[in-house]
Specification:
459 residues, 5-stranded antiparallel sheet, single chain, binds beta-L-arabinofuranose, 6-stranded mixed sheet, 45% strand, mainly beta, Jelly Rolls, Tachylectin-2, Chain A, 2 domains
Length: 459
């Protein structure tokens, strides 16, 4: 096994077979959040060369304050990640930092939501940043490969004052850029300037008037505090999807049009407010190998500070009339998980009685544990791949104050006795039955109490 990891590391490929054997920049999750060693907000997913690439922004613990004195978003650079299976993610490292942007304030920590598109073999990375001349501007960095290296253009895009760029390459051959609260304009073929034939309009902000390029694609639609537009085309329809405040925090809504620059008609919500009050949400939508996916963020690894967010993924489905079905966030996520990996059953598909707690509240990146307080408590974890060869043993990372018995179901079912271990232990038992192929795993406490499980793996 070690040999595979070493060869994989040398060739820069993610072939590790167990999470603990992966090179440092490779993560195996398959569950939500998808990146488990750093914050990853505003995830823009794109498919390049048959792989999925994620360009998130990079939250860090706050080092700057908002004008009201509260801790504020702090984002100094961007990483890019890639995956072939939505389970194993490679971090290709930093591609742009605030110190390297000639027109940006090097200490603003304002590298908000980015995007990246490919045109004629070049990769264009669009990013907002605080400008030396005041306000936000949108810059472009260009590379020959999605992983970089990226060359930052000396000037930001003229005519855009705002955040959260998204580029739509439409079937009419043009590229359109959307930003801020849903403003949109056509790009020149060079992808770094706005086209000369864009409409211009005079916009009033309080007592001041500004001439702005492009149009407001969200004009007249529900869009209080709208930001983070993500536009795409599918089946002859253009979709403009965007976070806005419906009540007190953001939902992701969407509108449809037959033209890239509208007018757009509001259609409804794709994702409702986060139940825990996390104020922002920010998303992207991508088709990978025939399935549509919805990338978004939540503050799972930072429950007390919602400006440290983490990327998550769900499947997205269209109705026959082209409208989008509402999505509920899950913990299970979308990735296939192998039984030979550390199966984080706290990222459950269903739960009854059991509870989920952080393992270490001084380091939330250590993740969660499942607590089975009393007999009858159970969780299930769907679509666990046991492969062709039935494992011989199962290992629980667990603790229990006294001996306990759990019912394990994976196609067949059997009771397994857990010995008394008051401290965290990797407890191995022979596999009580043969499990092969894709199975839904269920763990139920039959006797005992206060059993805690961090993960289970099958060998
Ligand atoms: O990440 C900073 C800002 O928060 C983004 O630009 C917005 O979309 C929101 O997610």
């Amino acid at each position: 096994m070690k040999k595979i990891a070493i060869i994989a590391a040398i060739f820069g490929i993610a072939a590790c077979t167990q999470a603990q054997e992966c090179p440092e920049n490779v993560m195996v999750t398959g569950t939500n959040p998808i990146i488990s060693n750093q914050f990853t907000a505003d995830p823009t997913a794109r498919v390049f060369n048959g792989k999925i690439y994620m360009f998130p922004s990079h939250d860090i613990p706050s080092v700057i304050t908002h004008h009201d004195g509260s801790a504020w978003f702090s984002m100094a650079d961007y990483h890019v990640f890639s995956s072939e299976d939505l389970t194993t993610w490679t971090d290709h490292g930093v591609i742009v930092t605030q110190e390297d942007v000639p027109w940006g304030r090097p200490d603003a920590y304002s590298m908000w939501a980015p995007d990246c598109v490919e045109r004629n073999g070049k990769y264009y990375f669009y990013f907002p940043n605080a400008s030396k001349t005041g306000g936000f501007a949108v810059g472009v960095a260009i590379a020959d490969k999605p992983e970089g290296p990226y060359e930052i253009q000396p000037e930001p895009i003229k005519g855009i004052n705002g955040i959260d760029p998204c580029v739509l390459q439409a079937s009419d051959g043009n590229a359109y850029i959307f930003w801020g609260n849903g403003r949109c304009a056509k790009l020149k073929e060079n992808m770094i300037e706005l086209a000369d034939d864009n409409p211009k309009e005079v916009v009033k902000w309080g007592p001041r008037e500004f001439e702005m390029v492009g149009v407001s694609c969200l004009k007249g639609l529900p869009s209080r505090q709208a930001e983070g537009p993500f536009a795409f085309e599918y089946n002859g329809n253009y979709y403009l999807t965007y976070p806005y405040v419906r009540n007190n925090t953001e939902v992701i809504g969407y509108a449809m049009s037959k033209n890239p620059m509208g007018p757009y008609e509001y259609k409804g919500i794709i994702m409702a407010e986060h139940e825990n009050g996390c104020w922002t949400n920010h998303h992207s939508i991508v088709n990978y190998k025939g399935q549509w996916y919805f990338f978004y963020h939540h503050n799972a690894y930072s429950p007390h500070f919602d400006k440290n967010r983490s990327a998550q993924i769900e499947k997205l489905y269209f109705n026959e009339d082209g409208t989008i079905q509402e999505i509920k966030p899950t913990l299970r996520g979308v990735g296939p998980v192998k039984a030979s990996h550390k199966v984080q059953i706290d990222r459950y598909s269903c739960i009854d009685g059991a509870s989920i707690e952080y393992i270490d509240t001084t380091d939330y990146f250590k993740g969660w544990k499942t607590v089975f307080a009393k007999p009858g408590d159970k969780v299930c974890f769907n679509e666990l791949d046991f492969g062709k060869k039935a494992p011989k043993a199962m290992v629980f990372r667990m603790k229990t104050p006294k001996p306990a018995e759990v019912l394990v179901t994976a196609g067949k079912e059997a009771k397994v006795v857990l010995f008394e271990y008051p401290e965290w232990t990797e407890f191995e038992v022979p596999m009580p039955f043969k499990a092969k192929g894709m199975q839904d795993l269920k763990i139920e406490l039959v006797s005992g109490q206060d059993v805690e499980i961090d993960w289970i793996t099958f060998r």
